[in-house]
Amino acid sequence: MNFEKSRTEMVFQLRKLGIIQTDAVADAMLTIPRHFFIPHSHQNQAYQDHPISIGHGQTISAPHMNAMMCEHLDVHPGMQILEIGTGSGYHTALLRHLVGPSGKIFSIERILSLAENAQKIFKALKFNNISVIVDDGTIGCQEHAPYDRILVTAVGPTIPQPFIDQLSEENGKICIPVGDRNCDQILWLGNKRGDHFHKSRICGVRFVPLIGKYGFEK
Fold first, then answer.
1. In the predicted model, is pLDDT for residue 182 greater than 90?
2. Overall pTM surpassing 0.85 (yes/no)
3. 3-205 architecture in CATH?
């Protein structure tokens, strides 16, 4: 299978649909080899626009969702980002491409084997500015706060207060799905300026549940 050709076609279609809007996101999705992050048994589907199981009841999001979240977060080189839910590591890698070597990504994953597998891929890609932490993602990571951007890749019943507290007061942004565990989920973009936090609705979505102290029970 010609993965490079399939990746180029995927990005072309997402740009044609208006989901990819910026050269930065297009370049990230053209550069990061999505098939590296997908189980071998499903690699022939790597550049199809739908979620794929990665085991442990988790999925890698559809490419259009990866692109949409990156666009709404408006990530720039040098930023410090907190990601909740490393999963396969694909979205982490996209964020790393967007922040460049001068930025920093802290990604929290509660499932050890997923965290370890993602770390192996990051090492192979020589991404040295990604820190993967195995912990309850719903409490964030106060140690390295504040964050310019926070990305949450699982749905919670609310936006956990630790995320808001750990956002930068200088135009910090968070992209997070909120709603029921199995239905009625909305993707929100939150923006923090000083002590003011404003959120706006993006679209309806379907994500796996955010498990932890400020999320759902396991």
1. no
2. yes
3. 3-Layer(aba) Sandwich (3.40)
